[in-house]
């Protein structure tokens, strides 16, 4: 019973987050963001620095502490790596990172 409640809460939470694209990330497409993150091997490189699955690089309590700062960091990585993302793509990537790691409102 307890398990059922937890599972339902988890499912509900996921659904809520899945539709929760901040207004600042206008035009974001979560599926596209996920694809871009995989395609550009963001995690592979972060893994080299922090180990594990690489997600420890994302620190909500660090210097990236707002939606705007998160997008700025994605833009900086994009420029440094010469990936050439469009603004909607930067928003999409930011929205996925926010949904999975930062959870800024
Ligand atoms: C060539 C290696 C490399 C690749 C590829 C890379 N990153 Fe990074 N990224 C880093 C390093 C190193 C840091 C830590 C920088 C620091 O702490 O100042 C970082 C930090 C970040 C941060 C800030 C984390 C935080 O909370 O402080 C974000 C967001 C980020 N990267 C997003 C991305 C995204 C999105 C991609 C793929 C499009 C990507 N990175 C690809 C090396 C990389």
TrEMBL record:
Keywords: Signal
GO molecular function, one term: electron transfer activity
Signal peptide: 1-18
Lineage top rank: taxon: Bacteria
InterPro entries referenced in this protein's UniProt entry, alphabetically: Cyt_c-like_dom_sf
Protein name: Putative cytochrome c domain protein
Organism: Rhodoferax antarcticus ANT.BR
